[in-house]
Design goal:
mainly alpha; 434 Repressor (Amino-terminal Domain); 68% helix; 0% strand
């Protein structure tokens, strides 16, 4: 898997989990103290997030970091 493929998969996973909570990008951004544009870029695979950013997102969604990065 290439870096770009990994960023795309991660972005899709975040979208999937966010929609399960019926949250908008703005809702997620507020919950993890980011701006909406940062969430949009992350979901679109435009950025390579730090581990800390992923932890903030997982905490905001009340899931484990492992659950955030698990996919088929």
């Amino acid at each position: 898997m290439t870096r770009d493929q990994l960023k795309q998969k991660l972005g899709k996973r975040i979208v999937e989990l966010r929609k399960q909570k019926n949250w908008s990008q703005s809702d997620l951004a507020r919950a993890c103290s980011k701006d909406r544009q940062a969430i949009e870029k992350l979901e679109n695979g435009k950025v390579n997030p730090t581990l800390y950013t992923l932890l903030e997102i997982a905490n905001a969604m009340e899931i484990s970091l492992r659950a955030l990065v698990e996919w088929d």
